[in-house]
Amino acid sequence: MSLMTAIEVSASGLTAQRRRLEVLISNLVNANTTRPAGTEPYRRKDVVFTAAEPQQSFESAFGEAMGAVQGVEIAQVVADQGDPVKRYEPGHPHADKDGYVLYPNINAMEEMVNILSATRSYEANVQATTAAKEMAVKTLDIAR
Known about the structure:
Helices cover 48% and strands 17% of the residues. With 144 residues, it is α+β, with helices and mostly antiparallel strands. The protein has one domain (3-143). The longest helix is centred in the last third of the chain and has 36 residues, at 108-143. It is elongated. The two termini are 23 Å apart. The model has no long low-confidence stretch (mean pLDDT 86).
């Protein structure tokens, strides 16, 4: 695997984890969002990752044909199909005729753990990119 391919794979991971963070933060922000009775409340979203071939030249692809190098990309963002949380709040402007308000089924602690996981994955990709960059600089220094 070339150093540029290593950087490209890490960059795909950075992009995917950044998008995952955006989705997770959106979930956290909307945890207590309500909508008028009879309408669907906000649904928790999550990203689905899939393996993706790095974009490289034919020559390098041919040279690494047996290496099975893959990056990551987001295949889709899926909405949680779980039931919303019903809370009895008869004075709430979005309460239904029985006095219940529908809230998104979002667990703030679970979202925070997912945010920490995405942050750690992002940091790991930054470290991998930095290591590949340092190896390229060392290679150039040796070649002088």
